[in-house]
Amino acid sequence: MRPRALGCETMKHYVIRGGSEGKARLKLLARVLQPSTGRLLDQIGVAEGMSCLDVGCGGGDVTGEMARRVGATGKVVGVDGDGVVLALARRDAEDAGLSNVHYMQADAANLRLEPVFDVVYSRFLLTHVGDGSSVLGVMARATRERGTIAVEDIDFSGHVCYPACRAFTTYVELYREVVRIRGGDPDIGPRLPSLFLAAGVESVRVQVVQPVALQGEAKSIAALTLEKIADAVVAEGLASSAEVTDLIAGLAEFAEDPRTLMSLPRIFQVWGHRPASP
């Protein structure tokens, strides 16, 4: 069960700094999203003995959650193109005593696996790839008949902030623009059901979740994300380093005020089943 890694087409679109620096952001994001992602895993029925695939697994936080649910009789494979963050994910799995997890470095767009997985899942990957429908097709082909394909991805235009904050508005604009320039779709969420149907997925379901906070870690996501996309923003000429630094400071100051409200983007959770052969 080895993937063919034919280059790294997916990673070249990725605008968020990865590696060990990116892992810290992914860990914080995973804590904020654990309740909503956990409910999704319950809804799609991840359970003891299952075989699961996490495509674009990043730091392995959802991979680990799946591994705990499937138990010793199940198995989970995490695939990502970032070798550094995968090494950290492997260490986390070892520290947690998760022996039913295997991590592979490969490009999701060119992944070739046998259709043996009960659940194939991805979070915040399709928004960054040049052809989300192609990667979704890869995911569907790795799913066994009547197995489940599930995706969580964003509509970045759908943020909430109160009161109005110039730094926050500019951050959202910069993120959406740099992702578009790099070939991704920052607002892919509403398109996901149609992509599922085009891939032949049946019984498609959709729901939207959106963490919103007055205090706590969720309010630090905006500044941290802008920090991690700063290199791409500057490289594409969308803002200077000094301007980005000022925006990060403005976001951090706004987040520290317990009277302000900030959200993450709208997150579309979409899932369905691979049909049985006629």
Order the strands across the largest sheet as they lie in space.
3-2-1-4-5-10-7
Largest sheet: 7 strands, mixed
What is the mean predicted local confidence, pLDDT? 92
The rough form would be described as globular
Topology pattern, helix = H, strand = E: HEHEHEEHEEHHEEHHEE
Class from helix and strand fractions: alpha/beta
Query: pLDDT under 50 segments (min length 5)?
Result: 1-11
CATH architecture: 3-Layer(aba) Sandwich
Domain count, please report it. Answer: 1
CATH superfamily: Vaccinia Virus protein VP39
Radius of gyration: 18 Å
Distance between the termini: 26 Å
Q: Tally the helices: what do you get?
A: 8
* Name of the CATH class: Alpha Beta
Beta strands, count: 10
What would you call the quaternary organization? Answer: single chain
Share of helix, binned: 40-55%
Provide a descriptive summary of the structure in words.
By secondary structure, the chain is α/β, with parallel strands linked by helices. It has one domain: Vaccinia Virus protein VP39 (Rossmann fold). The protein is built from 8 helices and 10 strands. The strands form 2 sheets. It has a 7-stranded mixed sheet with strand order 3-2-1-4-5-10-7, sandwiched between helices. α3 links the parallel β2 and β3. α5 packs across α7 and α7 packs antiparallel against α8. The chain starts with 18 loop residues before the first helix and ends in a 5-residue tail after the last strand. The N terminus is likely disordered.
